[in-house]
Every structure is written in C-alpha cells, then in structure tokens.
C-alpha cells in the first residue's frame, strides 16, 4: 500500500483533532500508526531532510487551516473549529479539493497562492511545508528534484541508459546521488550538430537505448513553465524532423497553464508545432503509475510512459 498523500490525510487528521487539541508531531506519530507505516516509511526523508510523512501531514494541516476547519490556538497545536465539526457531522468519506473549495477562505487561499507562487501544487503532497517566504523556492526545487529522480530511476529500471541535465549531476534526492544512479551516462550519444547537442544536454532527463534517445523529459515545478517549453521549441526549430518523444512534466494544478502556453502562436508556429511533438504528464499521474507498476516495472517496455501522457493539442484527439 503506497504512503498516503496529503488529501488522504485531511479527513483522518480532522477526526484526530476533533478528539482533543493536539500537536503536529504527535498527530504525525498517531497517523503513521493508523496507516500502519513501516519503519522505513516512517524514516523516509525528502531531499530537504524533512520526513516525507511529516511533510504530508503538514500539508493536510495547511489545507484544513486555510479552509477554516482547524485553527492554531498556540504554536504547533491544532484545534478543530465549528466549521470542522459541522463537516464531520456530514460523515464524509473523504475530504478532497471539491470539499475544501466549498469554503470561501480556502478559495481565497488558492487564489493568493496562484498569484504569489508560494505553494507548488494543489494536489501533490511531496513538497516542504513553507515556513517563510523564501521556502517556496526550496519547495519547488525539492519537488523538481524528486520528479527528476523518479524519472531517472524509472528509466534505469526499464533497462535503459539515462541522462540527467549536465548542470544537475551534482544533485541528490534523499541519500540517492544522481551521479551514482545506475545506467547514468557520462556523455550523450552524438546524433546531431554541436548546437543541438548542447540543448539536449540541458534537458532534465533523457532515456537512451544504444545510441538513440527514447524519450526526453522537461520538468516544470515552478510558477513559470517557460524554460522547458523554450528548450523544446529550440529543439523543434533546430531539428524539424526529430523523432524523439518529448514530454513536459508538471503538477496537475498547472495543466491548464501548460496547455494554454504550449498552444500559443509562439510555440505553434513551427513545423511541426511544439504541441504536436510534445506530450504532457502530470506529477500525480506519473507517481500513481509508478506505484501501480512497481512490482513489474523491469518487465515493461519504454512505451509504458505513453499511457501516462496526454496530448498537448488544443483539442485532444487521442
């Protein structure tokens, strides 16, 4: 059973708080027992060093508080509010985004977040809970690094050689150093001219079989999605007949923004258009697909990723 995400934790946390005022550390400990986490799961940490499960409980707390379902009578303590008790009286099976969006305070919070970029995603719970204005950049970098690691590991587990952007080779996720990843190449196979190869070397993750690039992934966890799109458009401009599968990976909460930007005239004026050669994968769907296929990933083919991706065209014909 995969570790619960923050949306899995919102209802159990609210029920726990309904019994008595409780601190976040104690809540994390009790919820780890409720979900029967193994010792290794309890000890799992993010690249920032923060416990992964603690981070997810922290995000559940943020969402409940912003909806007005809990408050903080004093630092580190949670207390249920009248709204929280009224919600529990409805006996909900789950507290999801649709539930939270019933509350004007939560809608205001999401609107502020979208404008400021302080929070990475509506739906994913793998980032560090912000504690200051500067934490947003750390959270985005942490999320980017985790997805980069997951794609590198998935490619390696599929039996492919992998490449991480040259300027990211010194990164690590938890205790896993990118430079020590199995099947990581020290050089990209020379298929194109020097300028094209320099562009390719800066793409976040490549899957490679023999001397052929099987797939290229640009990860966009920040409020701006232009860097990946610009690299993809540069590649399309330099190599109009390129046969590499290109993927833009971003949070589900950014899906509409991705589709809007990739269909702009700037990116659709090439032949072929960037939206025709690039497909979109959400962080959430990628994580779910990896978890579902965990036991038999070595037996899958690289085309497995196609089933996780979706068209970037203005009208999805797939």
Entry summary:
This protein has 318 residues and is α+β, with helices and mostly antiparallel strands. The protein has 14 helices and eleven strands. It has helices at 6-19, 24-34, 39-43, 52-66, 82-89, 97-100, 104-116, 135-157, 194-201, 226-238, 255-262, 265-268, 274-277, 283-292, and strands spanning 22-23, 70-71, 77-80, 161-164, 172-173, 176-177, 205-209, 212-219, 245-250, 278-282, 310-311.
Description:
- With 318 residues, the protein is α+β, with helices and mostly antiparallel strands.
- The chain folds into two domains: 6-116, Orthogonal Bundle (Arc Repressor Mutant, subunit A); 140-311, no CATH class.
- The protein contains 14 helices and eleven strands.
- β7 and β8 (212-219) form a beta hairpin.
- α1 packs across α4 and α9 (194-201) packs antiparallel against α10.
- The longest helix is centred in the middle third of the chain and has 23 residues, at 135-157.
- Residues 114-140 have low confidence and may be disordered.
């Amino acid at each position: 059973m995969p570790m619960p995400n923050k949306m899995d934790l919102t209802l159990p946390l609210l029920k726990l708080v309904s019994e008595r005022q409780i601190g976040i550390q104690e809540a994390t400990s009790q919820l780890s027992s409720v979900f029967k986490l193994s010792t290794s799961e309890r000890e799992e940490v993010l690249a920032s060093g923060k416990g992964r499960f603690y981070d997810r409980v922290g995000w559940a707390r943020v969402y409940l508080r912003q909806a007005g379902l809990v408050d903080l009578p004093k630092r580190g303590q949670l207390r249920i509010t009248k709204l929280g008790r009224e919600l529990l009286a409805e006996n909900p099976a789950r507290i999801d985004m649709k539930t939270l969006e019933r509350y004007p305070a939560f809608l205001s919070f999401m609107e502020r977040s979208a404008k400021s970029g302080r929070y990475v995603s509506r739906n994913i719970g793998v980032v560090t809970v912000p504690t200051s204005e500067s934490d947003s950049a750390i959270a985005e970098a942490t999320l980017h690094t985790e997805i980069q690691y997951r794609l590198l590991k998935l490619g390696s587990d599929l039996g492919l050689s992998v490449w991480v952007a040259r300027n990211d080779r010194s990164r690590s996720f938890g205790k896993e150093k990118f430079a020590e990843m199995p099947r990581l190449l020290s050089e990209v196979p020379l298929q194109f001219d020097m300028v094209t190869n320099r562009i390719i070397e800066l793409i976040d993750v490549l899957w490679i079989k023999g001397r052929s690039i099987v797939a290229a992934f640009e990860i966009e966890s920040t409020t701006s999605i232009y860097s990946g799109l610009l690299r993809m458009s540069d590649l399309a401009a330099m190599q109009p007949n390129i046969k590499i599968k290109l993927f833009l990976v971003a949070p589900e909460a950014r899906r509409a923004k991705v589709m809007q930007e990739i269909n702009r005239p700037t990116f659709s004026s090439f032949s072929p258009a960037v939206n025709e050669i690039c497909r979109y994968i959400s962080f959430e769907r990628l994580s779910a697909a990896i978890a579902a296929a965990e036991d038999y990933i070595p037996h899958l083919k690289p085309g497995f990723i196609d089933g996780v991706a979706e068209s970037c065209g203005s009208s999805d014909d797939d």
